[in-house]
Design goal:
heterodimer; A: mainly alpha; 4 helices; 2 strands; flat; B: alpha/beta; Amidase signature (AS) enzymes; eleven-stranded mixed β-sheet; 15 helices
Chain lengths: 112, 475
């Protein structure tokens, strides 16, 4: 079995991956094979299992773990170290490509 | 015998008696690394200067006071998906090639406090995804027992480092067998603790509900020492627990009840491995152990279940690599989406991409119920299989082969992911159920040894280690 090219393309986009034509062909076939294999789970007999996650209910070892939602004072140096890991930075900030399509007009207004 | 060939416990005794110094010990390990690392490709980075400096300090401490802990001055290797502050950590990936860890993993803090010395970081399959340590941007690690063969994976570098006497012990991580299988392939002892026993803080996440840090050592006693040092609750990992770990007292084989799950002795198991395990069973019975066949009926679905849950978690965990916060970034991108697409496509290797796409597919609308939800249900049933046999039969442990196959030749399975996945068939269940499991050598075939897997009940690490010690004595 192999899965449709369009489907691989769509999934890759969701996963934020760009595939070469060779990769596309390879994954189409390999993913198809893997899906056939994992698909055998459908044959598994279910007993006393209602929904996927509710089976954990009532197990003593499984309890929610909470902590106070408090802010902690971090050292400036520590923060700098983290920022320094970023491939693009400016004035101690992480720089990205713009995420909003602000018109030139507005930008000029701000300068005023 | 050279110092680097000793066990952790033997070195500890030697240091206490001042038979040799920590510096001599560290130097002998570094010399071995220098001699063999090019050929075997085990370490991706070696911290010669800092290791020697720490060794010097350690010797001063030994000279000034006599009592030191069991890991004091012990040179260790660390899998390169565990963070050590201010040192590079690449997880075998191009996307993290220039990354410097900004903090210590919880296990590293503990080992630093215990006085252990880190020699370097070891090679692994990219983000711990693989069973052969061939999927690393640093190239494949070779098996010290025969360099034409794979060392297993994904902790192949850690296994090879211990097997080649480049260090005395190593940390690895195990998501579906990544400690036990390379331990088996390299003739070592490997322990995957119960889920929650060891903090995952500072372990680069692969599949968070399955990942667990564990140890690779030359014998069972060393595994127990290293495990004791890294276990325990940590507030920074909400899934970690403080548990007693069961009885540490010595166990006699004649008082032990061992279960043999029949689903682990079926077609697909190399007949030579099967024979080796059968010989072990005979020996155990001669020692008076009660060995009884049992059944874990949902075992046949374990691998399929694992290859749904694991990639699903992989695809979400690896969404954090965006080319913006840290690591590799493609500079020629036009817009933000382009940064993501190009950085990820060029930063990740083929196996990682395969699993991200698979996981994204399995979690996408229309498939979620059929695959992921179904896998969660089967996971509960696999777990129930184990809790049932431990409760009803009162087994002290279960015994199985660690791997259905012996090490394969480098490159043999690299283009056939499904056949590589099938080699995980005996190890994934312990991760899905969260149980502790130990692999130790129980026989030899050609250049390689055969790993036997001892699976214990929840948090019974001490019990399986004690049973392992008794089995070790039979050889």
């Amino acid at each position: 079995m192999s899965i449709a090219k369009d489907e691989v393309k769509y999934i890759a986009k969701l996963a934020r991956l760009e595939l070469t034509p060779t990769e596309m062909k390879k994954y189409q076939k390999q993913l198809g094979e893997i899906l056939v294999y994992v698909g055998q789970l459908r044959k598994a007999k279910m007993k006393n299992i209602k929904s996927g996650l509710s089976h954990y209910k009532g197990e003593a070892s499984l309890v929610n773990v909470f902590r106070q939602d408090e802010s902690k004072q971090r050292s400036r140096k520590g923060a700098e170290k983290l920022i320094q890991q970023a491939p693009r930075q400016e004035k101690g900030l992480i720089k990205t490509k713009k995420i909003l399509n602000i018109k030139t007009q507005k930008r000029e207004n701000r300068r005023v | 015998m050279f110092l680097n060939e000793l066990t952790i416990s033997a070195v500890h005794r030697g240091l206490q008696k001042k038979e040799f110094s920590v510096q001599e010990l560290v130097k002998s390990c570094l010399a071995e690394i220098k001699k063999e690392n090019k050929r075997l490709n085990v370490f991706v980075s070696v911290f010669e200067k800092s290791a020697l400096a720490r060794a010097k300090e350690a010797d001063k401490k030994i000279a000034s006071r006599s009592a030191v802990g069991p890991l004091f001055g012990i040179p260790l290797a660390i899998k390169d998906n565990i963070l050590i502050r201010d040192l590079p950590c690449a997880a075998g990936s191009k996307i993290l090639k220039n990354y410097q860890a900004t903090y210590d993993a919880a296990v590293i803090e503990k080992l630093k406090t215990a006085g252990a010395i880190f020699l370097g970081k070891t090679n692994l399959d990219e983000f711990a995804m693989g069973g052969s340590t061939e999927f690393s941007v640093f190239g494949p690690t070779k098996n010290p027992l025969n360099p034409a063969y794979v060392a297993g994976g994904s902790s192949g570098g850690s296994a090879a480092a211990v097997a080649a006497d480049m260090c005395l012990g190593a940390l690895g991580s195990d998501t579906g067998g990544s400690i036990r299988q390379p331990a088996s392939f390299c003739g070592l002892v490997g322990l995957k603790p119960s889920y929650g026993c060891v903090s995952r803080y500072g372990l680069i996440a692969m599949a968070s509900s399955l990942d667990q840090i564990g140890v690779l050592t030359k014998n069972v006693e060393d595994a127990a020492i290293l495990f004791q040092a890294i276990r325990g609750k940590d507030n920074r990992d909400a899934t970690s627990l403080e548990v007693e770990g069961g009885n540490l007292a010595e166990i006699k084989l004649k008082n032990v009840k061992i279960g043999l799950p029949k689903e682990y002795f079926v077609a697909g198991l190399d007949p030579k491995i099967k024979k080796t395990i059968e010989q072990l069973i005979k020996k155990l019975e001669e020692e008076g152990a009660k060995v009884k066949k049992t059944s874990l009926p949902y075992t046949k679905y374990a691998l399929a279940c694992y290859y749904i849950i694991m990639p699903a978690e992989v695809s979400t965990n690896l969404a954090r690599y965006d080319g913006i916060k840290y690591g590799f970034s493609e500079s020629k991108a036009r817009n933000l989406l382009d940064v993501y697409l190009r950085s990820r496509s060029r930063g990740f290797g083929s196996e990682v991409k395969r699993r991200i796409i698979l996981g994204t597919y399995l979690l996408s609308a229309g498939y979620y119920d059929a695959y992921y939800l179904q896998a969660q249900k089967v996971r509960a049933l696999i777990r129930k299989d184990f809790t049932d046999v431990f409760a009803k039969e009162k087994f002290d442990c279960l015994l199985t082969p660690t791997s259905p196959v012996l090490p394969w030749k480098l490159g043999e399975k690299i283009n056939d992911p499904l056949s590589m996945y099938l080699a995980d068939v005996y190890t994934v269940s312990a991760n899905l159920a969260g149980l502790p499991a130990l692999s130790l050598p129980v026989g030899e075939i050609g250049d390689f040894s055969v790993g036997g897997q001892i699976i214990g009940d929840y948090f019974q690490e001490n019990k399986i280690l004690q049973i392992g010690k008794m089995i070790e004595k039979l050889f």
